[in-house]
């Protein structure tokens, strides 16, 4: 289906990387949109092409209500009253992913999930390239998808957050996958977890092949008959754990021994398993997948070993922005001494009580910091202490950590209360770790 945007009043919400890519998309078509940003000083404003009408500091209601088409950036909630009103008036609201989906005729591998999206997307990209394909990765991982349109490609790999899935309607993925679903961004969704889950599962709409996690009990919610499962012993793809290594299987076929990889952490074995399922579904040569996975290193800020010094492991898991990611990190640790967990930031109204059982049975001390640090302290008071900032917590840990301990930054929270993003938080942890151990 061909879409025409000529003669329409087009408005873009958000002057971030996504918003700028949308402006350039329309300019290439000979169309000048307007653009709005709620910030008075958006950091990417200097990238805005000249002669584009803009409004800063608020969502200009007049511009919104006189538009024919609104392109919304993922950082802006679809549930703001003015946008709800616009929809009721029949104004079309979509996002850059929808614009991309309308333009593309090549295979798309779409990946979402509460945790592990970036790692799996990057693994799949490396496998595809190892197999000789011109594969390009974009979306939530950093490169706006509209930029991918101008590359000579064989296929696209798109990482999607729930925010990005909110306003997508015509995405026809060759393969769609939901890695896992657990509580996250509950403060974004008026109807809570079930609404978040429904949005995540919408990735399967119109997909040719649906890969799902058996642990999430979503099989009956996927209408597509072409389904592949992973995650449990009865799934198509599963893991057999031994004392030292784990073995990745497809049905009864042994595929990969994790001892022959550079992967660290049980959750990364799950990520490798899913990447194999995607690779097989794409019919990439199995040896290309295995070679790529054997040489794959953990991505920065994702259970990244920063230093092993004086018998102490320092682990940067700053990408942990929800409670389930902290749970996974704790399950992946093998520590002789005490776990010194840095937990805190903006909890996004999530329920952290699921960590109680772990805190009680583990040899752990929890350093709670940031906006919701005091609230998190109450989960396990006898093993916790409150410190205002990450830096202050690290100074305290440097005095307390002993031989055999693991220092784990796995905050389980958004970083935006004290940092511009999780990378800045992780980079501070890396800097402080190096200073402490110098």
Automatic annotation (TrEMBL):
SUPFAM superfamilies: MurCD N-terminal domain, MurD-like peptide ligases, catalytic domain, MurD-like peptide ligases, peptide-binding domain. InterPro entries: Mur-like_cat_sf, Mur_ligase_C, Mur_ligase_C_dom_sf, Mur_ligase_cen, MurD. It holds the Pfam family Mur_ligase_C. This is UDP-N-acetylmuramoylalanine--D-glutamate ligase. The keyword Coiled coil does not apply. Cell wall formation. Catalyzes the addition of glutamate to the nucleotide precursor UDP-N-acetylmuramoyl-L-alanine (UMA). PANTHER family: UDP-N-ACETYLMURAMOYLALANINE--D-GLUTAMATE LIGASE (PTHR43692:SF1). HAMAP family: MurD. One of its GO terms (biological process) is regulation of cell shape. Its EC number is 6.3.2.9. It is an enzyme of class 6 (ligase). Pathway: Cell wall biogenesis; peptidoglycan biosynthesis. It is found in: Cytoplasm. GO terms for molecular function: ATP binding; UDP-N-acetylmuramoylalanine-D-glutamate ligase activity. Keywords: ATP-binding, Cell cycle, Cell division, Cell shape, Cell wall biogenesis/degradation, Cytoplasm, Ligase, Membrane, Nucleotide-binding, Peptidoglycan synthesis, Transmembrane, Transmembrane helix. The lineage of its organism: Bacteria, Pseudomonadati, Pseudomonadota, Gammaproteobacteria, Enterobacterales. Belongs to the MurCDEF family. ATP binds at residues 113-119. It comes from the Bacteria. The chain crosses the membrane at residues 6-27. The keyword RNA-binding does not apply. Residues 301-411 form the Mur ligase C-terminal domain. It catalyses: UDP-N-acetyl-alpha-D-muramoyl-L-alanine + D-glutamate + ATP = UDP-N-acetyl-alpha-D-muramoyl-L-alanyl-D-glutamate + ADP + phosphate + H(+). It comes from Buchnera aphidicola (Hyperomyzus lactucae). One of its GO terms (cellular component) is cytoplasm. Residues 111-278 form the Mur ligase central domain.
